[in-house]
Amino acid sequence: MDDKAFAQITQSSYAALQTVREVKLKSKVPGKTYLAFEKNGNFSRAINADLWSPDELNRFPNFQEALTKRDFLDFEATDITKLLYTQAASVFAYIDLWKRSQKTPGTYFEILIHYLFAKILGVTPRKHITISTFDGRESKLPTDLVFDLGQGKSKFHVPVKTSTRERIIQVWAHQRVIDGVHGTGAIKGVPVMFAETKTDSNNHEVIEICLPLQWQLYQRYISQMTRIYYFDLPDAYAELPHAPTPIQVKPIGDFFSEFSSL
Amino acid sequence: MDDKAFAQITQSSYAALQTVREVKLKSKVPGKTYLAFEKNGNFSRAINADLWSPDELNRFPNFQEALTKRDFLDFEATDITKLLYTQAASVFAYIDLWKRSQKTPGTYFEILIHYLFAKILGVTPRKHITISTFDGRESKLPTDLVFDLGQGKSKFHVPVKTSTRERIIQVWAHQRVIDGVHGTGAIKGVPVMFAETKTDSNNHEVIEICLPLQWQLYQRYISQMTRIYYFDLPDAYAELPHAPTPIQVKPIGDFFSEFSSL
């Protein structure tokens, strides 16, 4: 998808949501409130009300210009997080209510991260790493996005998930294989996640499912992630930069001021 | 479940299957043929026709005696594989056709492996490993079955899956954490799997999904499995003991003659 397609899907998803009812959900997550859209009794996924900022969507064309110039001086990191959260949440909610059977939010999220990272880093990602064996054969390990900025420059392994739960261990394990093949630090692990909310389908209560102690073990014993970015960062993970085994988990907006130093 | 319960579920599952139709499936797996049971248009999972041996089920009480004595001189390894395959496949097919919504074959398979290994090894498994951190706190890593035979004796990490696909990387990753915490070789990785078949729901064609090259990478770069046992061993994995990075993948029947030397 190109700039125009993203501008269009943003506009049309948000416009569609304006035709249905916005409802408040019951939050079981301390300090967070959630809304959802409802159409004929069906609910969209939970949307974090503090990050949901339709006004920011007006700045989406300006943000796309900034992406092209790789210059974000006009944007605060928190504004970028809100803008991108609202963009993705609009499309997800639209898919939830109108296209549930045909498209998956996970596929859209990967396309969005592909777009953002390719614009910023200036290269097209691959979706595997090539592994040469001692006896001269090559094999391929399928991965999420791998960005190679060129000889002597940074390389990033960017797994993309709308939410993780216990499947997250795959991310550290893939990184371990990549470290083994190419050397530790050669290709940096930078996963991007949307949120960790789960909504009870009966009473519409929203919880967050987080496993910070297990993440500590994975970072300590399997491999090391350079950054982990969230569109809606859970508090339990926001504390991990200060944990006994620190993990740099941050809101997605922070990426745009620090990408050149990663 | 105790000896009696296993004898009973074996008998009643097989008896139930005798009341429905046995059909031949179309096999896309070279050298293997498959059958299934059909009830009112619903099909059970695919069953490997060469391993399916209802006659062997008559020996199930004798096998349970052998388990209790830990003496398998009356059984060939291939007979044990057929006996256990037929036992598990009967229960799975019964669940598929009569209890699909209430019970899962995965849960039954874990109970069966729990039973077999606990009888053989003489200890009750735990379902987590405890991890002490440098600052004195303890955390728990949930795992599949962990058998500890006592001080100075063998310890086994036994993940159990009816089939694996790409989720298998979790098994090597958990083993890596265990190796990191307790030292490499302290707790041996011995996963047990049922089969890797997948049946097309439209035309009932059976395929096997295997990723032997990826297993090689996991064994080389993440951690090392001591054994991997299958009830229905795919040919692609049967070759792995002779691969550049050998992995000892074997039929489940072999376990009963080699468990004391693992």
List the helices and strands and how they pair.
Two copies of one chain form a homodimer.
Chain A: H1 3-17, E1 21-27, E2 34-39, E3 42-43, E4 47-48, H2 54-57, H3 60-69, H4 77-98, H5 105-121, E5 126-132, E6 138-148, E7 155-158, E8 160-161, H6 169-182, E9 188-189, E10 192-193, E11 197-199, E12 205-208, H7 212-221, E13 228-230, H8 235-238, E14 249-251, H9 255-258
Parallel strand pairs in A: 1-12, 7-9, 8-10, 10-13, 13-14
Antiparallel strand pairs in A: 1-2, 2-3, 2-4, 5-6, 6-7, 11-12
Helix pairs in contact in A: 1-4, 4-5
How would you sum up this structure in a few lines?
Two copies of one chain form a homodimer. The first copy, chain A, is of the alpha/beta class and 262 residues long.
